[in-house]
Each structure stands twice: as structure tokens, then as C-alpha cells.
Amino acid sequence: MAELASTSTKPKHMAFTYLSPLKHDIVYPKITIKPCLAPKSHSSNPNFLNIVSPITSGKIHAATTNVTTKELSYQDEKFKTQEEALPAGLEEELMPKHVAFILDGNRRWAVEKGLPPMDGHAAMRITLRSILPLCSKLNIKSVSLYAFSTENWIRPTVEVDFLMEMYEDVLRNDTKELLSLGCRITLMGNKTKLPKSFQKVCTEIEEISKNNTGTHINYGINYSGKHDILQACRSITTKVKDGILVPNQINETHFKQELYTKTNEFPYPDLVIRTSGEIRLSNFMLWQMAYSELYFTKKYFPDFGEDDLIKALLAFQETRRRV
Ligand SMILES: CC(C)=CCC/C(C)=C/CC/C(C)=C/COP(=O)(O)OP(=O)(O)O
Questions:
Q1: Which domain of life is it from (predicted)?
Q2: pTM across the whole model
């Protein structure tokens, strides 16, 4: 038997289950990314698309992207050819009610193409412009996306600033199509640490879309699954202290109402899709994912196309047929 490398790389605790995840066609790419976040302007090159609109500041404008117009039009063409009917093999009654995405691999996508890592985030934005409307057209009731974890603050300041400003711009601009499709948009997590202008646009978009009955799109921002559980516990204990709840009567229904997702109106995810070959939940919706089907793909999120979403949904439906 091959020698295991060293004690420090061995897992401290292994858990076994008979049930394997829905699918994993994974090898473990262990790629070290050398941060290369220096702002770089491509405004003089007509092949480079400036993703960020003029409403954001010059700082981010300069840090924007190498993603080419060719890639954008490719995605748009795919989107235009999307038929109203369900793609072959998909069944409406087996559609997941709630898909949670852990989008990963943006920076690796860029670095492997010799681009600055932030171009990967800009490319992700383009991919989202086709994946989210498709979720809506497929009548998936809820979609959650892990946008920014409580741990992500340790990333280089220039990257954090880039993401905050890009997300704000996504909410201002890219959500127009989603709103026209009747989507409701919410953000879960501790928003108090976000830039004030971002907080404002979050409140506005939640307010504008609150009565929409189409796909509910929920972004996790400054979100942590453990923190979500802890803040629910605090809220429950306050209710106990105030005499509103009796400890031995607390049940799951009480508890889930205290989570960010208020899951009475927002079902638990039945499908989790994680891109980039990592097989982890990374502190996303831990309570809510207890029974979710897990789908892992090696593709980096910027390369995750509409066909890949359909493939994941087919795999999910295949599992549901067997249950
Ligand atoms: C409006 C709004 C809030 C939009 C958010 C959209 C969204 C879900 C963004 C996720 C961004 C992200 C940090 C991806 C992980 O790639 P990475 O940087 O970890 O790449 P790597 O795995 O290659 O390092």
C-alpha cells in the first residue's frame, strides 16, 4: 500500500455512509492560485467587454474584465434558442423545488486562461445571466446562490471591493430580466457589514420584487450556515425568556422560522449543485441541506452552461424516479 504523506494531511475524522452523492465525476484539482489582483484596464481593446456599467465607481471600472464579447454573444444565442417547452427528458413533476448553487472556480477559470483572477468573477456574471433566467423558465420555484461567505472577507481588499461593487451592479442591472420574468429576489446573511449603497440596493430590490410569484432567487451574502443556526438559537432563547415558547415544545417548525430562509414559504433545497470539483458544503445552508441531493461537477462555474444545468436536473430526476 502506498505510504500516506504525513500525519498533518490525514483527515482527523472520517464519516462513512452507504448513500453516495447524486453524482460526482470528480478528480481533485489541487491548483494553487497566485493572487494577481492588480487592476488592469483593457478599455483600449475592442474585443474586451466592460461588464461594469457607468453607475459604479472608476475603481472597479479599471479592474474589470477580459471576457470577450464573443463569449457573451455565444451565451445570448443559447438563451434565445431556449424553447418554452421543457428540454428533452425533463419532467415537470420531478423538477426540484429549490436548487442551491455553490458556484466555485471563478478565479481558477481565469488563471488557467492566463487572465487576472477577477476576470473569472466577471465571466461568472455572464454565466448567471443565462442560468438564472433558465431556472425561471424551467419553473424552479426557488434558487439559492452562495455569493459571499463570512470567511470571504479575508480575501484581498481589492477583490472584496470588486465583488461588492459588481454585486451591487448585478442587482441594479442584471436583475431587470429576472424581474420581467416575475422573479422575487432576496438576500440572506448579515447585511450590516456591506457597503451602505449595496445595502440600499438590497432593500430596494427586495421591496420591488416582494409580491412576485415567479422563481424566488435568494443570494447568500456575508452568509454562514453555522451563523444562521446560531442566530436562530438566539432568537428561540429570547422567545423562551419572554415566555412566548416553552423549551420542550420547540420543534423544527419553530426553528426553521428563525432561519434566514424562513422556510415555511421557502422550501429546503432538494438539489445542491457545486462546480469546480470541490466536494464540500462550505458552510452553506447547513440546516436546510440535511436531505438535499448533491451534484458535483468538475466544470468551473464560468463554463457551466445551460446544458450543464439540464444535465444536473436530469441526474436529479433520475434519482427521484428510483426513490
Ligand atoms: C447579486 C449577487 C449577490 C450576485 C452573486 C453571484 C454569486 C453567486 C457569486 C459567487 C462568487 C464567488 C466568490 C465564486 C467562487 O469562486 P472563487 O473566487 O472561489 O474561485 P476559485 O474557487 O477558483 O478560487
A1: Eukaryota
A2: 0.80
